[in-house]
Design brief:
Keywords: Periplasm, Signal. InterPro entries: DctP_fam, TRAP_DctP_sf. With 338 residues, the chain is of the alpha/beta class. 49% of the residues lie in helices and 15% in strands.
Length: 338
């Protein structure tokens, strides 16, 4: 009996060792353009911690903040070619490849809240439609995190449409430049990391950088004493997109952990910024920064200009399909009238 017991213990020990040896591991290098001290940077760090903890250490992530490996606009290609494994910036940076990326990055003038925009992705057929686009470029869209409407930072008043005339501001590439040119502004495309210096030196009058709270974290209102709040013009869908070969090689439970953690990040982001932006607005007013809420008439003028510009960017089959998908869903939500 003693020998059998020892044999059983030995067999069990061998099985445990074998199971441990078979445990699969995934190591990922991910870059975000957000600085670690911003709210989005802290949320990205929480995502990393969630994934590593839920996977019991089977997934390890090395996160590169503030676009420290390559420029934000180059992150997608760096992941696709293996310099990195995943891109945690946003699809709108890739409109030069295909204008369809505008409509998975920032549709502009469409959805009013992060919850509406996320519902298109997860319940309006958006993820399947977007996935076709990403797979074309050897990338896999894991999910979105949407912090809500952005606010400008400006060294001049930005209280309405009339203030846009001859207003020089940092703009991301893509559809935004066309919309604001129609409204009289002078958009200047520059890298996210160059905004602070450009404001400081007067190269630009203002910047489309991020949400109010993130802008505070970037120190923009130390220089720019004007902003609009609530925001209206831009609600980027920051993404997590991974090299498709890397993603396909991951075990199914690792993929599931990454995807569900992104859904958690999306909710955390929307809720966090609803609170943090309100807190930032109160503090900025106390610090003497002028916050302007645009009139309904000016907001409608912007939406009209934005929606008139969508067809100009729907110049590929992928872009046409995404615009149609958005319009169908926006109509269901009552945000666009037939």
């Amino acid at each position: 009996m003693k020998k059998l017991t020892l044999a059983a213990i030995a067999a069990a020990s061998t099985a445990l060792v074998s199971t441990a040896a078979l445990a699969q591991t995934t190591s990922l290098r991910i870059q975000t353009h957000y600085a670690p001290e911003t709210e989005s940077g802290r949320l990205a760090a929480q995502y990393v911690d969630n994934v590593q903890t839920m996977s019991n250490g089977e997934i390890t992530i090395e996160m590169f903040y503030s676009a420290s490996v390559v420029k934000p606009t180059e992150t997608f290609d760096a992941a696709a070619t293996g310099i990195l494994d995943c891109d945690m910036t946003g699809g709108a940076y890739q409109t030069g490849k295909n204008p369809a990326f505008q409509f998975v990055g920032d549709i502009m003038g469409g959805y009013s809240t992060p919850y509406q925009q996320l519902s298109w992705l997860y319940y309006g057929g958006g993820l399947d439609a977007a996935q076709e686009l990403y797979h074309t470029y050897d990338m896999h869209l894991v999910g979105w995190w949407v912090y809500g409407q952005e606010s400008f930072a400006s060294t001049k008043p930005i209280a309405g449409i009339s203030d846009l005339v001859n207003w020089k501001f940092r703009s991301p590439p893509g559809m935004e430049t066309k919309i604001f040119e129609k409204l009289g502004a002078t958009p200047i495309v520059m890298d996210f990391t160059e905004i602070f210096t450009a404001l400081e030196t007067g190269i630009i009058d203002g910047a489309d950088a991020s949400g109010l709270s993130n802008n505070v974290g970037l120190g923009l209102y130390d220089i720019a004493k004007f902003a609009n709040y609530p925001g209206f013009h831009s609600m980027p869908s920051d993404h997590l997109a991974c090299n498709k070969s890397v993603w396909d090689a991951m075990p199914a439970h690792h993929q599931r952990i990454m995807s569900i953690a992104m859904e958690s990040l999306a909710l955390q982001t929307a809720l966090t910024f609803e609170k943090k932006n309100a807190e930032a607005a109160a503090q900025l007013r106390a610090d003497g920064v002028t916050l302007s809420e645009w009139s309904p008439e000016d907001l409608q003028t912007f939406r009209n200009a934005a929606q008139e510009t969508w067809p100009e960017f729907a110049t590929t089959p992928e872009a046409e399909a995404l615009v149609e998908s958005h319009l169908t869903y926006l109509t269901q939500l009552g945000l666009v009238q037939n």
